[in-house]
Amino acid sequence: AEDAAQRYGFGAHYADYRTMLDDVAPDAVWALVPYQAMRAVAGDLLSRGVPTFMEKPPGASVREARELAEIAQAHGTPHQVALNRRYAPLLRRMQALLAEAGRPTALSCQFYRYRREEPTFAYGTGIHGLDALRFLGPGEVVEAYVRPVGGNGALVTMVFAGGEIAQMEMLPQVGVQMERYVGHAGSRTVVIDGLYGPLTTYPGYLHLYDEGRLALALEAAAGDPPPEEICGFYGESAAFVEALREGRRPSPSLAEALPSLGIAEAVNAGRPWRA
Predict the structure, then answer these.
(1) What CA–CA distance (Å, rounded) separates 263 from 128?
(2) Closest CA to 149 of 123, 127, 131, 122
(3) What is the C-alpha to C-alpha distance for residues 68 and 42, in angstroms, rounded to an integer?
């Protein structure tokens, strides 16, 4: 803590966050702790009424995340869950391009990693792809079907309330790191790839096809933005601060994140999910 304070110019540092809260009374706190500790730390912050930005997943289980949501609601505490793909500029542009053409009818995500053997991969990392598909979709997901593949991988089909479909190949033990999203709406198809630094195709691109022709091509690195902006890390924190300044509810909240957490937990267990 002392080294970080000197490096980044903080006026004080603490070994116990509770002492910091008592001494400083911060306007907001970023709770970037392992998910096994999130229930205790974020629960304390939310119960104190401290606006809290929390790392995903917010808790070791859906039950813990739901308990945090109940605490936040009881105390009226503003908060946000760090699901950064929602703030990646290319993904937000994809959402807008699809919406211009009407309701997306089908979405897909190829979410590949290598040498990721942890049994909780879906809950800790794969949730990014599941949540991004929900963000791109035309409403709420009402059910999801899971077909386990290759140990901790899965093929996931999510069904939206209007019958639209989102499919995800979640394969954490293959030969490439890739994260590609494809969406279809009306005569349009949008493809984006490479949102995250370690991915083979990073910094990525967006291609818009309309009636069979390439209508738009964007490069994520155009203008030389920092990696934190390409991945959505900067955007999500900036949105949290702006929401607090303007008196709006930050997004995504725990309540908004719960379906993504529930689906991810179901993928880990190899079972279907229903809202």
Answers:
(1) 11
(2) 122
(3) 7
The pairing of strands 79-81 and 52-54 is parallel
Residue 271 has a pLDDT of 98
Query: CATH top-level class for 2-77?
Result: alpha beta
Residues 243-261: what's their mean pLDDT? 99
What does pLDDT average to over the chain? 96
**Residues 20, 14 contacting (CB under 8 angstroms):** yes
Range in 7-21, 35-49, 57-71, 131-145 the model is least confident about: 7-21
What residues does CATH 3.40.50.720 cover in the chain? Answer: 2-77
Spatial contact of 108 and 181, defined as CB atoms under 8 Å apart? yes
Phi, psi angles (nearest 5°) of residue 158? -110, 140
- What residues form DSSP beta bridges with 192? 181, 206
**DSSP alpha helices (H): ranges in 84-204?**
89-100, 121, 127-136
In the prediction, which pLDDT does 59 show? 97
Q: What is the average pLDDT across 184-210?
A: 94
pLDDT for the residue 195 = 86
Contact 79/137 with Cβ under 8 angstroms? no
In this structure, of 46-55, 155-164, 193-202, the range with the lowest mean pLDDT score is: 193-202
Q: Kindly indicate whether the domain formed by 84-225 is annotated with CATH number 3.30.360.10.
A: yes
Count of CB atoms within 10 A of residue 23's CB?
10
Beta-sheet strands, E only, within the chain: 29-31, 52-54, 79-81, 106-112, 141-149, 153-160, 165-171, 178-185, 188-193, 205-210, 213-219, 273-274
Q: Which residues pair with 273 in a beta bridge?
A: 144
